[in-house]
Amino acid sequence: MAIAAAVAVRLATPPAPWIEAHYSNGAYPIVDRVVRALTGPLPFCVGDVLFVIAVALLVRYWIVSVRHARGRIAVTAVRVVVRTFAVACAIYVWFMFSWGFGYSRVPLADKIPVHDERTDEDTVNRFGDRVTDELTRNAPEAHREHPSDADVAALLVPTFEATIHRLGDDGTFAPPHVKPTMFQPLFQASATTGFTDPWTHEVNVDASLFFFERPAIYAHEWSHVSGFNDEAEANFISVIACTSSRDALLRYSGWLLVFENLPQNVHLTHRMGRVAYDDIVAIRARYQKNVNEKVAQASRAAYDGYLKSNHVKAGYASYALFIRWMTGADFDRDGLPIVRARETAPIGG
Known about the structure:
This protein is mainly α. It has helices at 2-11, 16-39, 46-67, 73-98, 108-111, 121-142, 149-166, 184-190, 214-225, 231-243, 248-260, 274-290, 293-309, 322-328, and strands spanning 194-196, 203-205.
């Protein structure tokens, strides 16, 4: 039954407009409220607990099955593999209905008109200089703030809600709580800045991040909770929500996220202020200290495969694709992108 359900879900995913209207703006907000009502109030990470329980039960099942094989090793092995696969299929179906269908909603690339002539090398270079200027301008005031994650969430609410509404979410999504995770050492070794659990809708953020990085990473994960699964889209939402804020720390954090995703060959001509420059040096020093390149490469390869299996063609490289929207889209006086009317959005997925 579980295997058949997983195959049906995989092969019969509805078209993007249907997902947008009936899942992203229909079933998903209800699912999110129910799931977070159960997991949110708990002081520990439910996802961590479920992972440990699942692994323990799986290992126990394998060991007990082998012990009771009574010479029928081949038959037992087949039975164990099939049942394990069935459980994996059930978890996959849970994943899709809990969050995964969001990968098939109408992509932002179909919602945001982009002027191709504003995405060339010269334009990106000028944009890079603007990013440098924004970092220099906001850094001193940003360093006078040290808000908690709850304070950051409260500051983000107006601009975050305005951003996701502009990009297609009709509902609202309460700010998620950041929870500690037993995978913190893996976060550091693999350069993972944050994680949203698709089954429990809990948010984890790398505890070693500097205070000025946390708002943008938090907004990125909140975007995932709000049903924007694609990494480029989550980065874009985070940047717009942060940089359009009245708060200097949020603006600074957003522009830092942009700076870290500029193309490697970008040519900057503007001089960066000392405070911002020192922050970037500190970020890169932390990377050199904490990250294990083999672990990071394995993590990127695994996540690249995961993204591509969920219809994200660019895979891991998708994180930086939002720069195209930053340079090529039109924005209103509130800093929100101009989008196509919903009824004219392309039907393709």
